[in-house]
Request: fold
Amino acid sequence: MKKPLRKSRPRTSAVFLILLFFPLFLSACTVKTGQPNVGIAETDSMELLQGLSAAEAADLLVPQAPIKVGFVQVGHESDWRIASTKSCLETFREENGYELYFVDADNDPKKQVDAVRNFIRDRMDYIIIDPILPTGWDAVLTEAYHAHIPVLLVDRTITCKERYYTAWFGSDFVLEGEYAGAWLEDYLERNGRGKETVRIVTINGTEGASAQTGRTQGFAKYLDRHANWHHLAAESGDFTEAGGRQVMKSYLDRLTGIDVVVCQNDNEALGACAALQEAGISYGTDGDVIILSFDATKAGLEAVLDGRIHADFECNPLSAPYAADAIQKLEANKPLDVKKLELPERCFTNEDTPILLQTENGSKWTVPVTKERIKCRAY
Ligand code: GYE
Reply:
């Protein structure tokens, strides 16, 4: 992979200075552990530095400047997002050698672009973007490119030339949607409902976000295959619980006989359950309406365990450690293994036995949800 162009951090000039005054510096220098970003333990520095070139010794002795990371987050709309933010804050801690500049864009695409522009102005070493929308990035990414600041993308994607970002770590949203379709197909078949008319509604995520378009596209392949599946409506709940509840309520006000609700995340699913409950309509594994969801957060899996949600298609929010790993590699001038990496994800169901889901783009066994599984989950 092509090495990203990046200007060196201020450390370089410190190294230069130290080389100039090396003999003087050496005699005065004892380095202590426990201080942030100092490379070697308290010891006789003369002894430790023996055999090293002046440049190598200087590199060891100079306190490393923290790596400045600007991270622009989508917002705080869901449990998934909160887990993603937590992972970012834990990963890019001061103790780990980072100076993190974190911006919550509150679902405003303009705020995201402004944040990136500020990161460029403030000379971040790296910029990490979780983009609300895939479009609107060309100008600012070009600016980052010309400022030689590597850009890493996490979670959702951006539609731009590949050279404008160094790497992406996220999910295959189309595949997630396909698994949801494959599970529903299999479930209806197993329950003798393969030929029945099935009335489906979808509660979309934020319109235009790659998580929304991908899941929609994947599930649509299964809608297309089944003439008896009637897709009645798809409206956005903006990935929030309030949004899910409100959209479900409006569906119930104007539509009858809904068999399946596809919610594009867990918060929307919980909102939809509340609206169904309020309307006195039974749902879940003991009820009339089948609920599907995405994310598989703790709250989502608890709902799967007690039968409110039938199946939950996992989306992994822990991409920050992957971005940090890439940064460490770039710092060490090592090549990245891949430019795009899809994180591992599973399909959880309320059923006791695993079922093999096969789609045109992948296959995997479903995972039955248990209390123990939920307990040891990170988010
Ligand atoms: O499904 C939802 C969140 O982009 C995958 O955004 C993410 C989605 C996730 O708010 O809960």
Remarks:
- DSSP finds 14 helices and 15 strands in the chain.
- The longest strand covers residues 229-236.
